[in-house]
Write a structure and sequence with these properties.
The complex is a heterodimer. By secondary structure, chain A is mainly alpha-helical. Chain A is built from ten helices and three strands, in the order H-H-E-H-H-H-E-E-H-H-H-H-H. Chain A has one domain. A two-stranded antiparallel sheet of chain A has the order 2-3. Chain B is globular. Chain B has a ten-stranded antiparallel beta sheet. Chain B is of the alpha+beta class. Chain B has one domain: outer membrane lipoprotein receptor (LolB), chain A (Clam). The chains are: A mainly alpha, B alpha+beta.
Amino acid sequence: MRALIWAELYKLYRQPRTYYALGAIVLMEVVILFSAYYQGSALIDVLMSTLKQSFYFKGDLLNGNLLVYVILNTIWFHLPLLLMIIVSGLLTSEYKDGTLRSIFVQPVSKSKFVLSKYFVAMLFTMVAIFFLMLTAFGLSYTIFGRGDLIVYLDTLNFFENNDAMWRLFWAYLSGTVTMMFYSVMSLTIAIFFRDTTITWILATFFLILSNLMLRVDFGTSLWGKLLYVKLGESWQHFFYYDINWQEIVLNNTILLGYTAIVMGFGILVFKHRDIA
Amino acid sequence: MIRHLTYLTYFFFCFVLQAQETDRDLLAIKSRLDSIDHYEASISLDILASFIKMPTKYASMTYEKDQPVSFTSDNFILIPKRGLDFTLTQLFQYPFITLDRGIEKRGDKPLKVLNIIPEDDQAEYTIAKILLDTTNRRIVESEINTRNEGSFKLQLYYNTRQSALPDRVEITFELQKLRLPFNFFGKDTQIDRQELRSLDEKKGTIILRLTDYIISRTGEKR
């Protein structure tokens, strides 16, 4: 199993698209920071216009923490897309190049083989999020400095610099669980459809569908609480003034459960399928 | 006969208005506050409002006579536009008349109620109601109606009998409309617009706590 994981990691390390994905993350961040640099002050003015009736402001709200939060908000659609492309490629490229046959000529367990793929997919997801977090904090703090974070979630919430940093850190950690779900899902789609293009189209469709469902208000129904898209929004809970840890832990545990089910289903299908 | 009575009434009211004098207790307080040339204090600021969540903010406050109050802080702070004029410079900036409205009680303490009406159109307020602690020569409450920025209420609390400047101030403010760019700074998917509409014209309270006063004055000491 360990050898299989190392082999998968080596493949990931060798393929150029891994680096394209990481490069794309940085490029997206730069675009967001660039637009914030030119529009941010105006947007903050609009946001604070109500408070201007009664208050003067001292200090700058257009700072690194706000930008990290904006990156987090903006990139949560694009990042799963990149991850799904890279992760599904772990298997579809094997189908395409016919390397699966040569692998299974040797005494390799199908379950262990695909499990190692899932393991590497999740590891890569964690590395990508860590890379995103590192670059987001690094670029934002370097360009915009530190300061209080303002977020609108039902109320106008102000967080002091240290508090904001911790909340953003936890949000990235919680977001990792969500991203792992999408990565595992894309690998399962790859197991089902094998073809690279079809897998990418279906993975993209799945992502778009998820985003559309996110906009549907299910109220307080059980559906609303258990739907994976709603559970994947747990990272936002860190920006309510009072953090509901119990709900965040529960949501992420359920989402990890879904991830395990999707993974188990993929392993089962792969195990019982012929290597064509 | 009726015409004579009308003239008589008119002249009577003119005489009464001419005879309006500025309240002596208010003048005593004004003179006490006017003696303050400079003060500095550390402040902590809390905002109690259903639509704003903010931790306690800390800053330093400096007052120089005839200058706007200035603040220094390492963090982002919201400074109330109204209610920081503890010496009531703005209230007494232009000539005014006072109307004695009797006594009101706050707790067990009887307080003198006055209306202040500016005689000059340049004054920023139209009418002010103030409650005076005549024993300790200070203002404990005021409600000021401004020309352009609505009204605001101030409650001033003092730790000692001798204090001329407050140790705690509560400012009631009102915000008219909450306008927000949904797509940029927050979660744009689950905004309850109905709830948002209900946020129109919400009241809030700012609590200022002032400590470590350094006061320079021409007359008495704090």
